[in-house]
Amino acid sequence: MDNNIFKGLFTALLTPFKDNRIDFMSLEKMLEYQIKSGVDGIVIAGSTGEGVNLDRDEYIALLQEVVDITKKRILIIAGCNATYTIQAVNQVLEAQKIPIDGLMCTTPYYTRPTQEGLYQHFKAIHDIAELPIILYSVPIRTGVDFTDDTIFRLSELPKIIAFKDAGRDLERTLRISAKVKGDFALLSGNDEVSLAYNAQGGVGCISVVSNIAPKLCKDLQERWKKGHFKSALKIHQQLVPLYKALFMEVNPIGIKYAAQYLGICSGELRFPLTEANFDTRNEIERALKKLALG
């Protein structure tokens, strides 16, 4: 695993908006906060970053600004989301013109391809990619998931070196880690099960919560990595109320409100996403105060 860059804690970074435009001033503050907190990398324009709500020019401008601000101080992964293969290929071609470090490519949403269709989709991306690729499974959003066999097939392609799992089948980690090639990285896409995921073969998390609590999330991963299991579990248990509060409504509604409450960026979202409701706001504030974050 030493040669695989996709391990540890990656933040699925929010995209800050102000008056329906990307707020680059807040973006710089957010990036410096992540770097200072020691996260291993950031994912830009994923589902947490409202990637599907960005037009082409915004997407490119966002990636370029992140690269310009960070100056190689942190790994940068571009989220790539598409409904059909040509669209995905074109997005990857655009993204890799910018000096980023990797790609996180989501299963096509709405179209619900077969397993052979998924394989051909990601093989097409692989064949034109110049960067390492994370496969991203998030069936609650896309309506489709990988079978184990499809993951195994895709893992044989040399540039596909990691899998972000935002599904609910924890046993899958055990099955895949037992058979997949040794340098293939398994990453949790759900904060609340990230410790269990590591215990069953995972090597890290692509986190939503680390937008607002990067030091705690990083400490959790580091303690696990060093074998300090009880102290890692204690941090995880402390974070449970925050996990629950942030995901009372669809992501990124909760995390955007938490970021606003902490003064990290505005809570502005793009329709059809709407602001957090009263109950969600109350639970988030309560959880943040309990962790001494608010």
Compact overview of the structure:
By secondary structure, the chain is α/β, with parallel strands linked by helices.
Describe the structure.
- There is one protein chain.
- This protein has 294 residues and is an alpha/beta fold.
- It has one domain (8-228): Aldolase class I (TIM Barrel, Alpha-Beta Barrel).
- It has helices at 24-37, 56-70, 85-95, 115-128, 139-142, 148-155, 171-179, 194-199, 214-225, 229-246, 253-261, 278-290; strands at 8-12, 17-18, 21-22, 41-44, 75-80, 102-106, 133-137, 160-165, 185-188, 204-207.
- It has an eight-stranded parallel sheet.
- α11 (253-261) packs across α12 (278-290).
- It is globular and about 45 Å long.
- The N and C termini lie far apart (37 Å).
Q: Would you tell me the structural class of the helices and strands?
A: alpha/beta
**Rg, please?**
18 Å
Summarize model confidence as the mean pLDDT. 96
| Total strands | 10
Please work out how many helical segments DSSP would assign: 12
What portion of residues is helical? 40-55%
Proportion of strand residues? 5-15%
Secondary-structure arrangement, i.e. CATH architecture: Alpha-Beta Barrel
Order of helices and strands: EEEHEHEHEHEHHEHEHEHHHH
End-to-end separation: 37 Å
What is the CATH third-level topology name? TIM Barrel
Assembly annotation: single chain
Low-confidence stretches: none
Give the name of the CATH superfamily.
Aldolase class I
Which descriptor suits the 3D outline? Answer: globular
Return the CATH class: Alpha Beta
